[in-house]
């Protein structure tokens, strides 16, 4: 029985024919790609206070995340379009190489600004890992099996997110913050030859046009928006007006251009499908909520509570743990219930977790942070699996790359916008509470310098950052409510197809 099963190929007009053994190797390679991009998103979170303590620049800390996420957001639709035109395999290999080059550069950064630049380079490569890996999985399995394997891979994403904060905390405490970037080098080097040898790509050779104009307009428009959001407390009124004008003009031109481009990078035509439009907007919202946990729990635990990076890692790990637990089981549950029901469950958990964040204080300690992050992780696990599977099942094979990358793109764009918006909120709040300057915040994040501060200065700065972070958490509550509202708009009755293609 087992040997017969091993020789049986997966056959469908919508899937690539491949033996079970080769398919398992491809799935393993895709799982490694997901691990790399996921662990990179979480491992640096617990290292950021140490980075700030070493090189300064707390006001730019959100750019460490925003630059990486913006680059991913720009790259994701490009990779998705190229995957439908050129095939998946060699694009994934190229994206991995670029990602690893950016990783090495980040480990060698000598200041906050160079680190931000290198994170952008890393993000351009990282933007291809997740959508291409998930698109390959979509090619290998018909709809019913696709739901289960995507749920399992969502759990892989969660496991890597789970281990990331702990590994980051341990490496930061022992080898220093630069070491957190080294973890992806070996997996990436091993993954590429496995994918090359095992995956038989399907390529539809035809004449194609790459939407370079759309890509440039997107970078200019979204980049101007993120700069205005992060630095609005420090920029002059005239500069904010200029950035606003550039944002509006660029994004308006982008919408016009994409409506007439022969092969638009944004694939706006897919948005006419109500499942695609609602799940994409939902992914945007959960991406923004996610950054409220990843970026802004460690500064509270370490800067306000005075705990170590390891304690901060444990507090942050709950979000990944919740995502992992739900991700392993949500794909199977989607076979039985509708997309709307599943996403509403997730939205409710997001709101509850965000409300708990608002109640975070020194007396409640890291356990409260752990619990609130866990609820948000549960909500993201429900919503993320639902939105991705719904988008993939709503289109044909030749649109699946665009649909997959479009959904992930919206979540990454939401994360970039969330990091920028929330970073702008805390910079604005701190500017009002510490008008003489924020250099003391950098010292607060370094355990050695913190121990040397006068008690009065320590109390004043701790109170200022605690109140500013609570303001950030209230904004996260609003974003979670938006995610819940969008979940209620997912078309009623839409669910995973019960029949697999023969």
Summary tags:
502 residues, mainly alpha, Growth Hormone, Chain: A, 2 domains, 19 helices, 0% strand, globular
Could you walk me through the main structural features you see in this protein, from its secondary elements to its overall organization?
The chain has about 500 residues and is mainly alpha-helical. It has 2 domains: about 15-210 and about 260-485, MFS general substrate transporter like domains (Growth Hormone, Chain: A), CATH 1.20.1250.20; about 210-260. Helices cover about 75% and strands about 0% of the residues. It is built from 19 helices and no strands. It has helices spanning about 1-5, 20-45, 50-55, 60-85, 90-105, 110-140, 145-175, 185-200, 210-230, 235-260, 275-295, 300-305, 310-335, 340-360, 365-395, 395-435, 440-445, 445-450, 455-485. α2 runs antiparallel to α8 (about 185-200), α4 runs antiparallel to α16 (about 395-435) and α6 (about 110-140) runs antiparallel to α16. The radius of gyration is 22 Å and the shape is globular. The two termini are about 20 Å apart.
């Amino acid at each position: 029985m087992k040997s017969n099963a091993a020789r049986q190929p997966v056959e469908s007009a919508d899937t690539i024919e491949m033996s079970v053994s080769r398919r398992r190797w491809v799935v393993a390679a895709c799982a490694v790609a997901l691990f790399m991009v996921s662990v990179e998103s979480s491992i640096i979170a617990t290292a950021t206070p140490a980075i700030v303590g070493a090189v300064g620049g707390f006001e730019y800390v959100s750019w460490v995340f925003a630059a990486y996420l913006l680059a991913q957001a720009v790259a994701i639709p490009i990779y998705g379009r190229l995957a439908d035109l050129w095939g998946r395999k060699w694009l994934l290999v190229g994206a991995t190489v670029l990602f690893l080059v950016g990783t090495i550069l980040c480990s060698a950064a000598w200041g906050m600004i160079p680190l931000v630049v290198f994170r952008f380079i890393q993000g351009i490569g990282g933007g291809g890992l997740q959508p291409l890996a998930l698109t390959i999985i979509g090619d290998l399995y018909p709809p019913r099996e696709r739901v289960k394997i995507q749920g399992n891979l969502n759990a892989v994403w969660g496991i890597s997110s789970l281990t990331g904060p702990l590994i980051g905390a341990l490496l930061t405490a022992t080898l220093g913050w630069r070491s957190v970037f080294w973890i992806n080098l070996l997996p990436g080097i091993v993954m590429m030859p496995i994918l090359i040898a095992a995956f038989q790509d399907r390529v539809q050779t035809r004449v194609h046009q790459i939407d370079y104009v759309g890509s440039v307009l997107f970078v200019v428009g979204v980049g101007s928006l993120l700069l205005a959001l992060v630095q609005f407390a420090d920029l002059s009124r005239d500069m904010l007006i200029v950035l606003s004008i550039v944002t509006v003009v660029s994004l308006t031109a982008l919408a016009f251009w994409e409506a007439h481009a022969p092969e638009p990078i944004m694939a706006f035509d897919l948005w006419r499908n109500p499942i695609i439009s609602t799940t994409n907007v939902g992914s945007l919202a959960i991406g923004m909520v996610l950054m409220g946990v990843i970026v802004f729990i460690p500064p509270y635990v370490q800067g306000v509570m005075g705990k170590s990076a390891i304690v901060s890692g444990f507090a942050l790990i709950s979000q990944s743990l919740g995502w992992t637990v739900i991700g392993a089981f949500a794909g199977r549950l989607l076979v039985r219930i509708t997309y709307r029901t599943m996403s509403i469950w997730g939205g409710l958990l997001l709101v509850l977790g965000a409300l708990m964040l608002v109640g975070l204080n020194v007396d409640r300690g890291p356990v409260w942070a752990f619990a609130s992050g866990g609820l948000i992780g549960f909500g993201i696990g429900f919503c993320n699996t639902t939105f991705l599977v719904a988008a993939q099942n709503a289109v044909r094979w030749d649109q699946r790359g665009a649909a997959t990358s479009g959904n992930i793109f919206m979540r990454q764009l939401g994360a970039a916008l969330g990091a920028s918006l929330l970073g702008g909120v805390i910079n604005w709040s701190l500017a009002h509470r510490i008008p003489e300057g924020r250099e003391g915040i950098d010292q607060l994040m370094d355990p050695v310098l913190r121990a040397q501060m006068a008690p009065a200065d320590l109390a004043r700065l701790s109170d200022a950052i605690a109140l500013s972070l609570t303001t950030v958490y209230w904004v996260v509550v609003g974003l979670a409510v938006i995610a819940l509202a969008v979940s209620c708009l997912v078309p009623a009755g839409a669910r995973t197809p019960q029949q697999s293609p023969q």
